[in-house]
Amino acid sequence: MTDTQKTQPADKARLYWRENVKLLCTLLAIWFAVSFGAGILLVDLLNAIQIGGFKLGFWFAQQGSIIVFVILIFVYAARIHAVEKRLGVAED
Amino acid sequence: MDVQTLTYIFVGGSFALYIGIAIWSRAASTSEFYIAGAHVHPLANGMATAADWMSAASFISMAGIIAFAGYDASVYLMGWTGGYVLLALLLAPYLRKFGQFTVPDFIGERYYSKAARVVAVVCLIVISFTYIAGQMRGVGVVFSRFLELPIESGVIVGMGIVFFYAVLGGMKGITYTQVAQYCVLIFAYLVPAIFISILITGNPVPQLGLGADVAGGVSVLERLDRSLVDLGFTAFTEGTKSRIDVFAITLALMVGTAGLPHVIVRFFTVPKVADARRSAGYALVFIALLYTTAPAVGAFARLNFIDSVHEKPYAQAPAWVKTWEDIGLIAWIDKNDDGVIQYAAGDAFEGRVAFSGEAGRHGERLLDNAPTASANEIAVDRDIMVLANPEIAGLPGWVVALVAAGGVAAALSTAAGLLLVISTSISHDLLKKTFRPQITERTELLSARASAAAAIVVAGYLGINPPGFVAQVVALAFGLAAASLFPAILMGIFFKGMNREGAVSGMVAGLIFTLGYIIYFKSPWFGATNTAEHWLFGISPEGIGAVGMLVNFAVAAMVAHFTAATPQNVRSMVDAIRMPGRASD
């Protein structure tokens, strides 16, 4: 076996993990922003905005954040699957 | 047909369904008993997880809490859903890849230590028993209200049903009954919500109805805000809790949710790592259906409640007021002696409801309690909101019966999931992996069934004789999960440098800190005043798990820094867990 063949899987693993952590950081930033940000810390500010019978901050706290959470999980599942395909590390 | 007969038919029919499923899906091996042979379709697992997760508290209490707490109840809505993002992104896929049976399995192997495994088992058992007492109680309450059985008999019937399918079917039986229970409970929740939304706003989607206009061109929320402020309450869309406390409680509930063993273990049952991720997504979709409906149900219920009791003569009050007064969940004290119910902010009287046993001039049950100075004359238990909602809105009898079946389904499904992790941790983690490694698979399976049976008896006892502060101990379950199990699992996956000494001392420190803080403020033993000015940083016992988690991280990092590094074979194991496919070949 040559040197490159031996190191390749380990490099792939490191690359995969780096991409995974980067993706996690982005998605968790959104997770934090919609719940702790819009729903709690900035709630008074956003409550000044009224959309369709809802104060916006209140809407994020009781409806919006939950909807975004659902989307985040499916986005993660799709994106990380694409990364796995690209790097050839997907499950069989 | 009257409501009682219909309720018997609905609840009885649902029980027959659960038992049928149990017989069809008996477990034959430990793998089937513990994790349903890892053959569960991710969609089915999503439904089962949703039923597992949504307990009597979600089904019966949450809309009531929202009705009376308004914005403050957002901590539960965000906390109990946001945890699934953490689960799907940070824990579930890796634990699935690790691929054994239990949460203590992971902690024991990753931290190469029986001590770590035993600490994890202790956390798991404390968390699960605190939780289960409330479920059995929930079954009892539904039975007593709708079938007019004593609470005790209700608990015993519930125990019998769970015994049948949990002991027989293990995880396999539980999974498929939970799928059925999810269907029953979500249908039972949505039907009255849709009816009421149409009645009040004309919009059939409750989530939109919440923001739609009531008669007169103001939105539901605006109308509710105004009515409440007129009666001296805080507006529905404004909170009373401090910002830091809302932040801490939400965080503790999110992290606690992600660390609850009976939820985590559901993700061991799917075939692949990718399934674990998708399955968490499906689970949250199914949960969100109920959780985004709950604020609408809560707001509609509060509005209906005000309209149907405030300034109404008691003699002409709707029938449900008297029904619930009969079982002590509504009480009226005619302070100004005008025979008319006045509803306002503040307690109606001092202390807990204590009926004198006599009837008053208008036929109401008289109270021994001393009246307060506030104008409020009516006390209402917030738990009745979902159960009474169909009656308050004047919906047909079959809807009331359906809600009863839904409440029982929610309580039973959660109880079964909890019983399973308790029995698994005893037969697998304590016996097979720690104290009696020589036992055969047959013996292990037998002891799993025996410990499930024993756990049901204990749970039933706790349901009939609930410990004094049972409603408050739910905070304990989440706090402990947040401060002990979640950090240990997270660091196990993301920090290879975290070693045995660090993880164990972190778990113990987080556990003791959180437990100590909650007991100090919640138990009667220390005489501590449970108010904001006495709390650490203004964080209530409900939110202290968030601080406990930080304590765990800090202690673990410090201890790991000064002790021997993680062995090479464990580092390789972590590498393997991180990769979805086979690690290196």
Structure description:
The complex is a heterodimer of chains A (92) and B (585). Chain A is mainly alpha-helical and 92 residues long. Chain A has helices at residues 3-41, 43-47, 56-87; strands at 50-51, 54-55. Chain A has a domain at 30-92. In chain A, helix 1 packs antiparallel against helix 3. Chain A is elongated. Chain B has two domains: 42-304 and 395-578, Sodium/glucose cotransporter; 305-392, no CATH class. Helix content of chain B is 68%, strand content 3%. Chain B has helices at 3-24, 30-35, 42-53, 56-69, 74-98, 103-110, 114-146, 151-201, 206-209, 220-230, 243-258, 261-264, 273-309, 319-326, 384-392, 397-435, 441-464, 473-494, 500-522, 544-562, 568-578, and strands spanning 312-313, 330-332, 340-341, 355-359, 365-367, 378-380. In chain B, the strands form three sheets. Chain B has a two-stranded antiparallel sheet with strand order 1-3. Chain B has a two-stranded antiparallel ribbon with strand order 2-6. The model of chain B has no long low-confidence stretch (mean pLDDT 86). Classes of the chains: A mainly alpha (92), B mainly alpha (585). At the A-B interface, helix 1, strand 2 and helix 3 of A face helix 5, helix 10, helix 11 and helix 13 of B.
Keywords:
heterodimer; A: 92 residues; mainly alpha; two-stranded antiparallel ribbon; 2 strands; 83% helix; elongated; disordered N terminus; B: 585 residues; Sodium/glucose cotransporter; two-stranded antiparallel sheet; 6 strands; 68% helix
